[in-house]
Amino acid sequence: MPHDISLIATITAGFVLAFAFGFLAHRFRLPPLVGYLLAGVAIGPFTPGFVADGGLAGQLAEIGVILLMFGVGLHFSVADLMAVRRIAIPGAVGQIALATLVTLGLTKLWGWPLGAGLVLGLSLSVASTVVLLKALEGRNAVGTPNGRIAVGWLIVEDLAMVLALVTLPAVAELLGGKLPATPGHPPAESGSLLVSLGLTLVKVAAFVALVMTIGPRVLPWLLRQVARTGSRELFTLSVLAIALGVALGSAKLFGVSFALGAFFAGMVLNESELSHKAAHETLPLQDAFAVLFFVSVGMLFDPSILVREPLKVAAVLGVIILGKSLIALLIVLVLRFPLSSAFSVSGALAQIGEFSFILAGLGVSYQLLPPEGLNLVLAGAILSITLNPVVFHASERLAHWAARSGQALEQAGARQFAALQEELERARELAEQAAAAHRTFTPEELVERFPLFASLTPAQREVLILHFHPIAAEPGDRLIRVGDAADAVYFISSGEVEVAVGGRRIKLTGGDFFGEMALISGQPRSADVTAVDYTKLLALDRRDFRAFVRKHPEIREEVAHLAAQRQKMNAAEAGAEGKAASGDKDEARGE
Ligand code: CMP
User: Fold this and answer.
1) Torsion angle of alpha carbons 578, 581, 586, 589, nearest 10°?
2) 2: which residues sit within 8 A by CB, 6+ positions away?
3) Which residue among 83, 99, 176, 306 has its CA within the 20 to 30 Å range from the CA of 184?
4) Has this prediction a pTM greater than 0.90?
């Protein structure tokens, strides 16, 4: 073949085999992730047949990590984390510390140096976000209190790992490792360890400060500008450009990891009302590259370790499944939470995944961890992920039993658990309110709700959506007071309001709009409008409304027509009432 197709071959082999093995895994009721890892093993250098380009696969995997971390940032909820902090923070930190200690003891027996044991221990102590979320989703348990505890616990673990990834290069030499001689990173002088650690922390702090101050001003604004163009393609592109650009830029400028840069890029966009759209548009790419990430991890795995070092593999697996579970179980009970939560959480976290590979990979590149260590991590990951459905199921059974049996350990935690449930409920309500306030309609939904906008092109609808302010009203909230000056027109997306005009009450529901009469006539508000149900509305400011109908005379006409009809109806009603007031009641009814 005249030109180099190794990239195409690597991607193709990765996707085709990942698909085939993933599908098979699903058939055997295993997570598809196991299939992706096995696909990697199949095209890796340790198995016969086609061998994909490991270097290229590694780079594709980096993109996977960037998009994965960007997605984690996009969904990172501080409020959720705060609600479960009393169990998640001590739990995750305690579990990492104890699991690392246990592994250190184990590696001491194997005669490994401290640095190697530390990296292996940290790698084994963090569970897999991808596997946990998929398992919880499959059981519809993401929103349950125990599910939320597990997710919060995992976020703390992830944050701790991000910290470990950032500090590892700075302390690598201290632990007996060597810095890889990459062009951008000349090996540090020995003796300047404290300086390099300090410098790393300063750089990270500078990066975080910069991203958190400038990011929220620039990035959401940029997304809005792009959304206004109405081009989905440009929008997706802008999200990718932000994720990859911030990740690579921050790695080059500040020396922080791609993962951290991408996580912060996601977190900054998290605040934007367009974050859901951003997450939605990039999900397919994120999925595709995450698959390549797992494939490339599988490629690194040398299956012969299962035969060469069965005891070490068994020990690692023991730490992941039994050791970590027992530690989590104990911590939850010591924190005085119920036994059922203890079972449920410890089972949910009994695997390792993406962060373990990243950390172990980094450890190998700094020559802290022997390649065998990475292989053990990979074996532990593949086996624990494969066994995860069984472990998860068993822990759920135990949790059910504990909840029903009502014995002492369950009772002891009941009060704390009730308090946590209450706090979660509050966090959920707040999140719902915020989500309602941030609700952005897709252009399709907008037309469905409001036939008035059917004549608009998709781009025009996008622009309109950006000008809407979402409002949530409770029964009894007065939305418009008769006689006030007009400031906006309201579109009801769900719920119900009541217009009180004269003695009459007119109900308006989803798809209706109100507040247009005063805007069109320039007169004060003609009626009181009050929410009579939990109602979601989209408000369009006077100025935006005027600019909008100026551009779309046909819509102005339709709105004006309805306003005129309502006006006429009210006038007729007022006339009838006038007569009724003068005593001519029968005639009033006849009108
Ligand atoms: P506006 O006068 O700006 O504020 C009160 C709103 O109540 C008014 O616009 C209309 O949107 C709405 N409204 C007034 N009369 C009626 C009616 N007869 N039927 C439905 N809605 C009305």
Assistant:
1) 50
2) none
3) 176
4) no
DSSP letters for 488-513? EEEEEEESEEEEEETTEEEEEETT-E
Q: Is residue 127 a contact partner of residue 384, using CB atoms and an 8 Å limit?
A: no
- Please list every protein residue whose CB sits less than 6 Å from any atom of ligand 1: 480, 486, 499, 501, 506, 514-518, 525-527, 529, 566, 569-570
- In the predicted structure, residue 461 carries a pLDDT above the cut 50: yes
* Cα 570 to ligand 1 centre (Å): 9
| CB contact at 8 A, 56 and 8 | no
How far is 531 from 509, CA to CA, in rounded Å? Answer: 10
**Tokens representing residue 357 in the block:** 């590979």
Model confidence pLDDT, tens digit, residues 529-548: 998 888 888 899 898 898 88
Provide CATH code, domain 6-417. 1.20.1530.20
Of the candidates 554, 477, 552, 556, the one whose C-alpha atom is nearest the C-alpha of residue 516 is 556
Q: Per residue in 344-373, pLDDT tens?
A: 999 999 999 888 988 998 899 899 999 999
Of all protein residues, the one whose alpha carbon is nearest to atom 16 of ligand 1 is 566
CA pair distance 78, 13, nearest whole angstrom: 40
Strand order in the sheet with 496-501: 478-480, 528-531, 496-501, 504-509
Q: Whose CA is nearest to atom 18 of ligand 1?
A: 566
By alpha-carbon position, which residue is closest to atom 6 of ligand 1? 515
Asked if the model's pLDDT at residue 133 lies above 80, the reply is no
- Segment 250-276 shows an average pLDDT of 79
Residue with CA closest to ligand 1 atom 9? 515
Question: Is-contact 224 440, C-beta < 8 A?
Answer: no
pLDDT band at 589 (very low <50, low <70, confident <90, very high): very low
User: 89, 106 in Cβ contact below 8 A?
Assistant: no
SS3 478: strand
Number of Cβ within a 10 Å radius of residue 484: 11
| pLDDT tens digits for range 105-119 | 999 999 999 999 999
Other CB atoms within a 10 A radius of the CB of residue 442 amount to 13
Q: Cα torsion at 517, 522, 527, 529 (round to 10°)?
A: 70
The CA distances from residue 392 to 66, 87, 343, 346, 573, in Å, are 28, 20, 9, 9, 67
Residue to mutate, 452, 482, 489, 526, ligand 1, most ligand atoms under 8 Å from C-beta: 526
Residue 184: per-residue pLDDT: 41
Give Cα separations from 490 to 48, 224, 470, 500 (angstroms): 67, 22, 10, 16
Average pLDDT, rounded, for the chain: 85
Quote the radius of gyration of the chain (alpha carbons, Å): 30
Question: Which tens digits make up the pLDDT trace of 166-176?
Answer: 788 778 878 87
CATH 1.20.1530.20 residue ranges for the chain: 6-417
Q: State the CATH class of domain 443-588.
A: mainly beta
